[in-house]
Structures are given as C-alpha cells and as structure tokens.
Amino acid sequence: MIRNLLKRYYKFNAFWPGQEEIIQSILDGRDTLAVMPTGGGKSLCYQLPALVLEGITLVISPLIALMKDQVDVLKKRGVAAAFINSSLTEKEVKKRTNEALKGKIKVLYIAPERLNSAFSSVLREIPISLAAIDEAHCVSTWGHDFRPDYRVIKECIDSLPKRPIVAGFTATATPEVRQDIVERLGLKKPQIFVRGFDRPNLRFFTSGWLDEFTRDSEVLRLAKSLPKPGIVYVGKRDKAEELAAYLTESGVSSISYHAGLKAGDRTDIQEAFMGGKVSVIVATVAFGMGIDKADVRFVIHAGMPGTLERYYQEAGRAGRDSKPATCVLLHSGQDSALQNYFINKSYEDSIERGKPEDEAAAVRDLKYQKLKQMEKYVMANSCKRRIILDYFGDEKTRKEENCHGCDYCLGLQGMVQ
Predict the structure, then answer these.
(1) What CA–CA distance (Å, rounded) separates 41 from 291?
(2) Angle in degrees, 0-180, between the axes of helices 42-52 and 19-27, rounded to the nearest 10
(3) What H or E segment, with its residue span, contains residue 35?
(4) Distance between CA atoms of 129 and 111, rounded to whole angstroms?
(5) Residue 303 vs residues 116, 131, 136, 416: alpha-carbon distances, Å
(6) Calpha distance 124→101 (Å, rounded)
(7) Domain locations in the chain as residue ranges
(8) Averaged pLDDT of the chain
(9) Is the distance from CB of 224 to CB of 301 less than 8 angstroms?
C-alpha cells in the first residue's frame, strides 16, 4: 500500500535508503526517532504516514520558511495541508484552526512557540494521530541548537486526550543527543533509526592559517573557480555585507544575508538566491536552516563555526542533489577568539535573564568542549571525514582507510582545489 501511495502522490517508484523502515515503524504504531543525513528525505517519512493514519498529523517545526514550501507542495499533490505560525494574522490563524477542528486538514505544521499559547488547548480538541517533531535535536541542551520552546512538546503531548504516535527527526545528533531526545520527548520504547552521517558526494577541505586579507582573496578564488551556486558563511553581519560587496565588485554575483535585515528584505534575498538571480550568498548562521535548494555546489566557511554539529549541518547544504560538491573551511587565529566571545556573551546573557549560575556555567562548559572538538577537526593531520563520522558515532562507515574525499586522503592538505 505505501509503495502505491509513494507512486501516486510523489511519483517515485522506490523509497530512498531507510525511508520505508521508518515509515513502517510509524504505521505499526511505534514511537520513532530517525536520524537521517541532510537531503535524505525526512519529510516524506512523516508525510506519507499521514495519508494512511486517521486524524491529523501534527508537524512541529522551527522552520517557518520551510513550512510554506512543504505545504504548497503537499497541496499540489492533493493533500489537505496548512501551517500556523507567526507569519499569519489572527484572522488567518482562526480560519485554519477551525478547518483543523472540522477535519478539513490532514497535515498541520506549527511552530513550537505555539505550544506556549492558548493554541495548546485547541490541540486537545483535534484528533491527532501522529506528532512529528522536525529538527528534534533542538530539544536537547547537549545539542548545538537548543530551543527552550521544544521543552514544552512532551507536556503538550501528554495533555492530549489520546496520546498520538510520536516521531522525532534530525540530521545532526551525537549518541548523547539521541538519548536526550528520547527522554525529553518522552518517546516510549522507540524504534531508533540512524541511517548514517556520511555524504560521499561531498569533499572536505581545510586551509592553513590565513590572515583576513588572504582569506577574502581565497574566497574570491574559490567562488570564481568552483561550480555555482554556492554559500559562504561568515561570523559577523558586517563581514557578510563587506565580503558580498567584494565578490560582486570582483565579478561574482553575490548578495549578503543576516539577521539584522528586515524580514521582507531577508525573504527577497532568499528568493533571489533560490531563483538563481545571484550565484553566491554570503551569510551568517541566520541563513540556511530548512532551505531546500538541492543544487548548491559549494559551501565555504570563511571562519570556524563553534561546533562540529553546526559545521556539518551548514556544509551539508551542499550537494543535496547527490552530485559532487565542495566544502571548504578557511580559518585564522582569530576564529577561536570570536567563538570564545560568543560563548562568554551567551553565558552572561543567561545570567542576566535569571538563569541559575550553575546551569549557565554547565552550558558554557559544554560549549567550550564542543569548540575544542571543532578546533581538533581544523588542526587534524588525518582524514576529515573520519573525524566527523567518529564524532557522530557512525560505526558503519567510519573505519574506511581512505575516504577519497578530503584534503588528507587526497594528499592535498593545506590546498583547496
């Protein structure tokens, strides 16, 4: 049956690796945790069961931009779908809520902050058969992208008249984070699927130490020589604007993106990149989560991220079409200092907001540990891919002698080609 639905609604003749087992687990009524690489087809694993299960599938996701994209696609496939988030007026929220109460919606996307509002009481009146939690790592303080709103999910699910099947999905979760997800979401005897973290089509390079001027020149060289489109990540907003201007003046069509821009401007910039009007986007961490652009040919980090999770998540936005893509990390002596500043600033802000000092210190110390792991990756005289796979506890693929896809295994250390 599920293969017939796959062909009817998605026009696919076969599932991608891991999808069928995850879908069957959900249809068997099992709580499920699925860890799948970026581009591995996570959304289908909760959308297809929604077509079989009675009632509504509730999708909890922090990705407002992605909600609209997925709802639009589902509607084109003939599936009744809607989203409720902060982009809607109260009138629109009320209309879609009433449609859900009347059973006119099959898949309903909501942002996690909705669970902290009066909307949580409305959910008790909706027959929810499946609660799918996207970016499930956000529930864990051990992860790289903890969001307090995610901690309300378990309480909300437990308050429902009939507990639904609960399924968590993520692309980046260490063994510790996976265990934390199970506990924090209250998954009951879950089936856990870890499909592997390896992305064989990606090549990983790191540079030697670079000063700021040399790093900008190297970004330009790579942006000119590598196939496009591409993403360049930087640590600061002003640097995003400065580097995008430099690339454009040097003949590479570029645009900058950061959280300091107005919401409408960010939308226009994102659409310009997604639509191919510009070939390179220079961005801070604010860009990318949930961006469904399959043909990104390179991701350059002009600066070291604070964690391997964040690096791999951002680098993994390249090559989602399974075609070859290049991931480059250009670093300097200033990178660690900048990340230490971010960690200390976050700690101070937590204290100011009233968080107990011991809790804030524990989070700070964890971030320091993750930063050391990131520094180890940057400085390593060994296979870069193996370091990543070891970090995520990928036992299946991490023991290969030569990955044939990183600077060390290709004999190109300190060189990016």
Answers:
(1) 14
(2) 40
(3) strand 32-35
(4) 18
(5) 36, 37, 27, 15
(6) 10
(7) 2-194, 202-336+367-391
(8) 90
(9) no
Q: Which amino acid is at 225?
A: S
Cβ atoms of 313 and 38 within 8 Å: the answer is: yes
This prediction has a pTM of: 0.82
Q: What are phi and psi of 316, to 5 degrees?
A: -70, -5
CB within 8 Å of 404: residues ≥ 6 apart: 410
pLDDT digits (tens, 9 = 90+) for 356-373: 999 889 889 989 999 999
* Token pair of 61 as six digits: 């996701």
Summarize pLDDT for 21-59 with one digit per residue, the tens.
Answer: 999 999 999 999 999 887 778 999 999 999 999 999 999
Strand 191-194 vs strand 107-110: parallel, antiparallel, or unpaired? unpaired
**Facing residues of 165 across strands?**
130
* Domains 2-194 and 202-336+367-391 fall in the same CATH topology: yes
Q: Classify domain 202-336+367-391 by CATH architecture.
A: 3-Layer(aba) Sandwich (3.40)
DSSP 163: P
Give the pair of three-digit tokens for residue 100: 């859900």
Q: What is the CA radius of gyration of the chain?
A: 22
Residues of the chain with pLDDT > 90, as a percent, come to 66
Does residue 288 register a pLDDT over 80? no
- CATH classification code of 2-194: 3.40.50.300
Please name the amino acid found at residue 122.
Answer: V
